[in-house]
Amino acid sequence: MKKALRIGAAAVAVAAVATIGAVFNLGRTSDDYAVTPYVQTAVLKQGASGGEVKELQRRLKAWGYYSGSVDGIYGKQTVEAVKYFQRKNGLTADGIAGRSTFEALGMNDSVKVLDNNKGNQSNTGSSQYTSSDLYLLAKTIYAEARGESYTGQVAVGAVILNRVASSKFPNSIAGVVYQKGAFTAVADGQINLEPDKTAMNAAQDAMNGWDPSYGCLYYYNPAVATSSWIFSRQTVTTIGKHIFAI
Q: Could you say which of 116, 137, 158 is where a domain stops?
């Protein structure tokens, strides 16, 4: 999704914001999707890139099948590692990570994506994002804002996407969500909750360009926030219990 779709009037302020990760409580869940980020069909092959590829590489490396960098790029070395894994596990050694390979690697989210999207191609509203990204965004929204209004949930999703679009933060949803120390939901395990349909819809609306936060990069609940730094951010709007800031 293009940065211009989400930043709007606060674009100048957003561009100037410092590179600091505010602490957020993010969530996830959904019966409609399950996935680990990146690649439109959720089948990975040479040329693919993103969070799902990183997870594939991480698992292959942990089990001794891959010795390269966990860089999220499905290159020749990753292809060969997948083939090696497939041969050792009685699978067709084609170097393509599909359902059987995901299942053997324990990548259950990716298996769910393939199963849930069978015969029903998902539309994330932008070719930049995949069903994996949508699911992770929905999980984050659910974990962090499931008690908020629908607009408040969309706003949380928009903040994450605003970070993706900002040069000050990682350039992927997975990178933003799992950035070290960025979201308490990752640390406390709420990221593992299953998102509901409302969170899925909110994630979709955020991806389609709705930004109730007006370009914010931070949000917090003043009743529970413990960082004095977050209170110094410029407030743009308040939705429910969350203050959205730049």
A: 116
- Determine the angle formed by the axes of helices 150-165 and 197-207, rounding to 10 degrees: 40
The reply to whether 13 and 82 lie within a common domain is no
**What CATH number is attached to the domain comprising 154?**
1.10.10.2520
Reported as a pLDDT band with limits 50, 70 and 90, residue 187 is confident
0.85 surpassed by pTM: no
Instruction: Show the tokens assigned to 112.
Output: 């769910």
Query: What angle (nearest 5°) sits at the alpha carbon of residue 37, between those of residues 105 and 150?
Result: 130
Task: Write 8-13 long-range contacts (CB < 8 A, 24+).
Answer: 8/211, 8/214, 8/215, 9/214, 9/215, 10/214, 10/215, 10/216, 10/236, 10/246, 11/215, 13/215, 13/234, 13/246
Q: How does pLDDT run across 213-228, given as a tens digit for each residue?
A: 999 999 998 888 878 8
φ/ψ of residue 238, rounded to 5: -125, 130
DSSP structure class, residue 183: B
Q: Provide the domain limits for residue 70.
A: 51-116
Whether the CB-CB separation of 217 and 166 falls below 8 Å is answered with: yes
Same domain, 110 and 214: no
**pLDDT tens readout for residues 54-69:** 889 999 999 999 999 9
Mean pLDDT, the chain, whole residue set: 79
Residue 42 falls within a domain, yes or no?
Answer: no
Cα 156 off chain centre by: 12
Examine the domain organization and report whether 153 and 188 are in the same domain: yes
Q: How confident is the model at residue 235 (pLDDT cuts 50, 70, 90)?
A: very high
